[in-house]
Amino acid sequence: MDALKQGADALFILLGGIMVLAMHAGFAFLELGTVRQKNQVNALVKILVDFSVSTVVYFLVGYGVAYGSGFLVGAETLVQKNGYELVKFFFLLTFAAAIPAIISGGIAERARFWPQLLATAVIVGFVYPFFEGIAWNQHFGVQAWIKQLTGAEFHDFAGSVVVHAVGGWIALSAVLLLGPRANRYRKDGAMSAHPPSNIPFLALGSWILIVGWFGFNVMSAQTLDKISGLVAVNSLMAMVGGTLAALVAGKNDPGFVHNGPLAGLVAVCAGSDLMHPLGALVVGAVAGLLFVGMFTLTQNRWKIDDVLGVWPLHGLCGAWGGIAAGIFGLQSLGGLGGVSFAGQLLGTAMGVGWALLGGLVVYGTLKAAIGLRLSQEEEYEGADLSIHRIRATPERESSW
Fold first, then answer.
1. Per-residue pLDDT tens for 21-58?
2. What does the alpha-carbon distance between residue 375 and residue 81 come to, in Å, rounded to a whole number?
3. In angstroms, what CA-CA distances link 342 with 149, 152, 321, 348?
4. Which of 72, 260, 364, 393 could be bridged to 288 by S-S, CB 3.0 to 4.6 A?
5. What is the pLDDT of residues 109-153, one digit of tens each?
6. How far apart are CA 189 and CA 114, in angstroms?
């Protein structure tokens, strides 16, 4: 029976890893559909190569930083207990690799390729797993300190803060250091509109992410005996809440409609195992409103050229999710309890602060040392031709 349980747990978390791996196709198509046609190939290549770099670095360094164990031992040792530790690594890697995938959408259309890969290596090797170890592996006694101070540890079941807020706030640092795309904001105050290039691909990316997210959230239980139908239903309710709120606030704009469910899912990750489904619906709806409002504000008034709106979507909605777990997770609001508002606020602030610091150091250093941005000519030509020497539809350019 023990061997059967170990095998079932290994299969359970492996299936979760595969579902979250599929989400990276969602990141790719969401970016492809949003950027201009001359940058579509670059969007696809970045996500795949970033994932590959993340895998190597997290295997060799990052997993050890977060959990204190590594894989530089014999294969006989690795396959003990049906290789559960290995598939757990696979599952958690897909979370870690989401960080550069998030950043990719913010810096799209003007970032150089190789400096971004270097940033990915540092972020996935140290910046992300350092906070991951604090939140999910009791490193440095921080969780014990938060519990002593507020009455409960910082709770982030599936990564509203650990993954999404950290990724979104690192992305904000990169976006600010890069500056806006050429001619996006003119000296006379006018703005050049860069509408999504392909709404069907954007929608496809959103749907792939939505489906994979149920692996992201539900399989965060990590063992079969801890699986919770509450997590699944709360994820569903937050998703539809975000969709409907974004539909209304975004005035039927398809870009907002297809990012609304993602905002809701980002926000519900932290407390999806604690909230009542009606609480999750409210959390998702607030996240949808937050995304639409802050995307519009950052793009139009603050003139922050965050191409996919990853700071509002992941950074702000992730932070809201961390805090919301301390509100709607309370028994007085229908939740299961075991959390405190102060503890959630403190843990969220720590994650945001670490991400901002890490992003500024990593991208600031790269900008000073080797540069982050394509040249003006390369940006005008587009990342597809400048970096990859081919466009998404080369047959249109062939001459007869």
1. 999 999 999 999 999 999 999 999 999 999 999 999 99
2. 52
3. 9, 9, 14, 10
4. 260
5. 999 999 999 999 999 999 999 999 999 999 999 999 999 999 999
6. 33
Residues 320 and 287 sit within 8 Å (Cβ to Cβ): yes
CB 41, CB 390: distance < 8 Å: yes
* Of the candidates 268, 60, 53, the residue with the CA atom closest to the CA atom of residue 155: 268
Nearest residue to 308 (alpha-carbon basis) of 36, 54, 97: 36
pTM for this one? Answer: 0.95
CA distance 246 to 236: 16
Burial of 63 (0-12, 13-18, 19+ CB in 10 A): buried
User: Is 7 a residue whose pLDDT tops 90?
Assistant: no
* 299 contacts: CB under 8 Å, gap ≥ 6: 305, 306, 309
Let me know how many helices (H) and strands (E) the chain has, helices first. Answer: 19, 0
Which CA distances in Å does 59 have to 53, 71, 271? 10, 7, 28
Q: What's the farthest any 2 CA atoms get from each other in the chain?
A: 74
Phi then psi for 157, rounded to 5 degrees? -60, -50
Sign for the CA dihedral angle at 206, 243, 105, 395 comes to positive
Q: Rounded to the nearest 5°, which phi and psi values hold at 111?
A: -90, 140
